[in-house]
Amino acid sequence: MPQSSWIDSLTERLVVALVSGFAAAFTLALYPVALLILGGGAGGGGEFELGAHFYSFVFSKVGLLIVIAASMVGFCVGSERMANIFSFFWGTHSFWASLGAYLDDKQSELQTEHNVPLWLLIVLLFILAAVIVRSYA
Predict the structure, then answer these.
(1) What is the number of other CB atoms lying within 10 angstroms of the CB of residue 54?
(2) Does position 87 have pLDDT exceeding 80, yes or no?
(3) 6 with 49, same domain?
């Protein structure tokens, strides 16, 4: 193996490790913001408290260890595989599309089998979620 290709490979791996660390830190920092936006205030302000707890978790030694681990994994697996890993956590992986298709199929099967209106199913799911949240509060 020529020396220049070895140095190029090492340089590429180091850059992937650096970008993976930044992407992990960015993901950890923005996750509570996404939680607040998706929560939409349904918990009566509890999202802010959950976000504060999550930020105290992220900006501790655990968050630093996650960023270091992402950098090490990025160095070991390379750019394409690391992009695949981050796509899973960001929701752009093909797994999420196939899961959505599977759930749509199951929902249409349930609707034809039991003839339950979709709006009633959604209302019952929200009631169930509210009961679960209240039991933990």
Answers:
(1) 16
(2) yes
(3) yes
- DSSP character string of the chain: --HHHHHHHHHHHHHHHHHHHHHHHHHHHHHHHHHHHHHTTTTSSHHHHHHHHHHHHHTSHHHHHHHHHHHHHHHHH-HHHHHHHHHHHHT-SHHHHHHHHHHHHHHHHHHHHH---HHHHHHHHHHHHHHHHHHH-
Tokens 């996650």 correspond to: 66
Tell me: do 116 and 51 sit in the same domain.
no
pTM listed for this prediction: 0.61
Q: Looking at the structure, do residues 14 and 54 belong to the same domain, yes or no? A: yes
Same domain, 85 and 101: no
In whole angstroms, what is the distance from residue 39 CA to residue 58 CA? 19
Same-domain check for residues 77 and 104 = no
Question: Position 4: which residue type?
Answer: S
Range of the domain at 31: 1-92
pLDDT at 45 over 80: no
Instruction: Name the domain count of the chain.
Output: 2
